[in-house]
Amino acid sequence: MDLGLAGKVALVTGVSQGIGLACASSFLAEGAVVVGTSRSAPPAADGLRHLQLDMTEPGAPERAVAETVEQHGSLDVLVNNVGRGKLWTGFADEPETEWLDVFELNLMAAVRTTRAALPHLVEGDGGVVVNVSSVNGRLPSTSIYSYSAFKAALDNFTVGLSQEFAPQGVRVVGVAPGPVETRMWLGPEGVAAVVGERTGKEPQEVVEETMAVIPVRRFTTAQEVADLVVFLASDRAGTITGTTIRIDGGLIPTV
């Protein structure tokens, strides 16, 4: 299936690993020009134009957009992927500094980058914003309050933007993964390791117990999320806007 993305210019935030890197690689495979941001050194993705930026730093979102347009003449797709979550033992354990940090990274980085990008997306031929959210936006957790709250806010932001900018030819959509085979879940300090340490279980046991409550009985892969993102960014999804699509193996029942 030709997605018609060849020659399109895409900006993807948070490309050092996981979903962001998979998205960047998938856009490149479709022939798009891809600029990616991350705080760490450039990832191994042939053809990726990398900007080493912390998207919570003042001016970083605006710089990412400006350099993309300056180098490539336009901007057609923005993927707001950068974000993180951290497990706590409960509400009282999660300090205000964490709420502020998560607010900046999971919500305001997307808000600022989108604000900078929208004039260029409106000028183009059907611009698209894809916000990478989480099932936690609909499935609050007592161990990850701030992340859940700001992913819910991101989903709301997606709807509002879509209504304002659809008449100007810009679609705004979201994807909400459940557990994904990335470092956030499977890394040394990931969810499985933290839960295992607290409960006296091996990380693999935590993973197996989690898979047991997912109807498809496995985690989603980063590539599967990227495939959805790339499809939503294409003209094949031309009337999909104002919604956040869950990709969670059926974890949250669809009604």
Descriptive account of the structure:
The protein is an alpha/beta fold and 255 residues long. The chain folds into two domains: 9-178 and 221-247, NAD(P)-binding Rossmann-like Domain (Rossmann fold); 179-219, no CATH class. Helices cover 43% and strands 14% of the residues. The chain has eight helices and seven strands. It has a seven-stranded parallel β-sheet with strand order 3-2-1-4-5-6-7, with helices on both faces. Helix 1 crosses helix 8 (222-233), helix 2 runs parallel beside helix 3 (96-123) and helix 6 crosses helix 7. It is globular. The model has no long low-confidence stretch (mean pLDDT 93).
Short summary:
By secondary structure, this protein is α/β, with parallel strands linked by helices.
Q: How is the quaternary structure best described?
A: single chain
Bulk shape: globular
What is the count of structural domains? 2
What is the CATH architecture descriptor of the largest domain?
3-Layer(aba) Sandwich
> How far is the N terminus from the C terminus?
30 Å
- Report the order of strands and helices: EHEEHEHEHEHHHHE
**Any idea of the CATH topology of the largest domain?**
Rossmann fold
Main β-sheet, in a few words?
7 strands, parallel
Uncertain segments are none
Mean pLDDT: 93
Helix share, percent: 40-55%
List how many beta strands DSSP finds: 7
Q: What is the CATH homologous superfamily assignment of the largest domain? A: NAD(P)-binding Rossmann-like Domain
Structural class: alpha/beta
How large is the share of residues in beta strands? 5-15%
CATH level 1 class label of the largest domain: Alpha Beta
Radius of gyration: 18 Å
Strand order of the largest sheet: 3-2-1-4-5-6-7
Number of helices: 8
